[in-house]
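Marked as duplicate of an earlier ticket. Keeping the data here for the record.
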Amino acid sequence: MVVAHSERATLRVGDVFLKIDTDQARIDVEVEAMAMVPIPTPRILWRKPPVLALAALPGTALGLLGEPSPASSAAWAAAGVAIRMLHDAPLPPWPGRSLDDIAARLDAECEWLTANGVLPTDMIIRNRQVAEAALRPWTPAFIHGDLQITHVFVDGDEITGVIDWSEAAQGDPLYDIAVLTLGHEERLADVIAGYGTVDLDVIRAWWSWRSLVASRWLVEHGFDPSSPGCEFDVLRARM
């Protein structure tokens, strides 16, 4: 078992990953996105709803949230190059989340965190202020939408593929870079070396936004955002 929660489960059987998801619209997005993007993705072996079978990618994940990444600076830069290729690709035909939806979700999650005493109020307020920089108009790009460090695979200094495309959509390209470097701020310069110039204030804003809005989901699905180097530490770093 690779991961399992109320939304989906992923199992590994030898060199095959079985994704079990009853939300076929989400799987439709994943399959269509992988067919469109100009970077390596897992090979689809077969699909029999609710199961999607994917071939394992060569190499290993770029790293793990909460742990130092063993990957080289060159590998992180190669990830930046791959992300730039994705963001320069033609837009997918389906839209992403609107700016209003993103702002409303931030408000709702901050209210929940405050009401349940999950984090100190001053930490929530400060990170809510930092996150404001992300709530501005942007030019849409083809984004992965959940570009966690564990979703990017490398072999040496080469990118071998990117997995888990169910959140792919039109969106802010800086969100992808922020999610990839969440908890690994020291690697941002390497990513930028491959990707190109970015607005660092917006990257920091997305770090705060992502950590605030993800916390409730993580808690409710059995994950621990208070683990060293994870979401709560990202929020503390903004203080």
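See parent ticket for discussion. The helical segments are 24-36, 73-87, 99-115, 121-131, 173-181, 188-195, 200-220, 231-237.
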